[in-house]
Write a structure and sequence with these properties.
Blueprint lengths: L3 E5 L8 E6 L7 E9 L8 E6 L11 E5 L6 E9 L2 E3 L6 E9 L1 H4 L6 E3 L4 E4 L1
Parallel strand pairs: 1-9
Antiparallel strand pairs: 1-2, 3-8, 4-7, 4-10, 5-6, 5-9, 6-8
């Protein structure tokens, strides 16, 4: 069986979300979490909304893909979710946003062996 290492590169002030080693023989869904810390300027309460750009290799809204490091025509789809997507800041100081990434087993079963990555930008607007 092939072993595929999947990871998402960290952006400024963000942690990497690593899917780890995926074994196509198992074909199981892989779900991982990363924490993004943010804070809103100004006195609370402040409304906010969070969006993402679907990454560098998207093929449509919410159709994220990671690209192979050596073979640029090879991709593995994945999804990102986070909550809340909007609301009111609970107070001053740093807040944590949990971002969940999922790779479906059927999406890496026939993928080329190697490293895959993507970079996603989250935007938090008041």
């Amino acid at each position: 069986s092939r072993i595929i290492l999947i990871s998402m590169e960290p952006g400024p002030a963000a942690s990497a979300m690593a899917f780890g080693v995926l074994d196509p023989a198992l074909g199981t869904n892989v779900i991982v979490n990363a924490i993004v810390r943010y804070r809103c300027a100004g006195a609370p309460p402040r409304n906010f909304a969070i969006t993402d750009d679907d990454g560098l290799f998207e093929i449509g809204a919410n159709l994220n893909r990671m690209r192979h490091a050596v073979t640029p025509t090879e991709f593995i789809p994945y999804s990102l979710t986070y909550a809340p997507v909007s609301g009111i800041t609970p107070g001053p100081g740093w807040q944590n946003l949990t971002v969940t990434g999922t790779v479906q087993g059927v999406n890496y079963r026939d993928a080329a062996q190697g490293n895959y990555s993507d970079s996603v930008t989250l935007t938090i607007l008041p």
